[in-house]
Amino acid sequence: MSLLTRIKAAINYGVGFSYENGKNTAPDYQQAVEHYIKAAEQGHAGAQNNLGVCYLCGRGVAPDVAKAVEWFSKSAEQGNPDAQCNMGLCCLNGQGVEQNDAKAFEWFQKAAGQGHAPAQYNLGVCYEHGQGVAVDYEKAVAWYAKAAKQGNASAQFNLGYCYRKGRGVAPDYFKAVDLYLQSAKQGNAAAQCNLGICYLSGQGVVRDCAKAVEWLTKAAEQGISDAQFNLGVCHANGDGVPQDDAKAVEWYTKAAEQGHAFAQCNLGFCLEHGKGVKQDVWKAEEWYLKSAEQGNASAQFNLGLFYSNGQCVKPYYKKAAAWYAKAAEQGNAAAQLNLGFCYKKGQGVEKDLAKAVEWYTKSAEQGNSSAQLNLASCYATGEGVEKDFKKTKEWLTKSAEQGNEEAQELLQKLSAMLSIFD
User: Fold this and answer.
1) Helix, strand, or coil (residue 375)
2) Which of the 8 DSSP states describes residue 279?
């Protein structure tokens, strides 16, 4: 390329850039594209990349991912790191080219080697998730750190997450919070959400519910479902804001509509019991089902209660037992207790005293005082298990120590009976 051609290309690129960014005038994307085309055809790498972006986004020209890739490729082959990163993204997402993680990794590597922060971030993602390369958390952390140092908000968030979870680096909640804060201040919604959760839990920072609400609100307003759910919990509990069930329902609904299982469960509970919203058991069932079908144990347990109590006209013990079983298998102690009761009484399942004892035991071992009392009763009567006075007393004591009044009363009677033989 002659010197004159390079000068003309630079001028056209500069004019196109001015039109695109509205320097000294309102943005005019069509004019920007016209000048980018002239500069790109003259071999200007920056113009080729920017023209690719215009074709990819439909800015000043009809969207055309094939043409976008064509221009990204020309620019990338000249060593332009922006274009190399864009080529990596196209390969990663299968835009205009066949999806290819290995090729994406190669392009990110080229750009990252030139100090390109977004490429360094994407290279970290590849190492963290094994995209185009073997999983290597330490290398992921190293690349996130390079990008984060340059102020890349996504890298700051991911690096913070690594410090919080101890992924590729020793756990350090304080560093995690610092990185979340840096990212959150730049408007990163995920960082704002996690920072809010840290303030709510006091993890890596002094617990401050008001600050938690502040950051959760910023993230929730950007549509982050985790933030919307946690903000609903704050309003329900009065953490950092005045207690307000209606506000809780408002945020639960936003999160639930995005498929957030915990929010769907909580919304179902509010609808079932008329908390912050008019009672509607049919809608409650609908939201419980959405949550339960995603595997949420609390929703599965609530559905079990819902059906066993006959909230929708009459009890459905078979359905109740089926949902208790799903929750119980995930370790939900209350569901384990109720499933044990179903087996003991033959409600919704074939009566099986041995299975009743099995589920009571699982629940009791998690500290459920009612299960401990029921298990003590089984050992006392020999229902589903051999009689064992020692175990009867052991489980009665555990239940009583947790404040179970019935267990306390039975333990007193048992002690009184034993004193007769002293």
Assistant:
1) helix
2) -
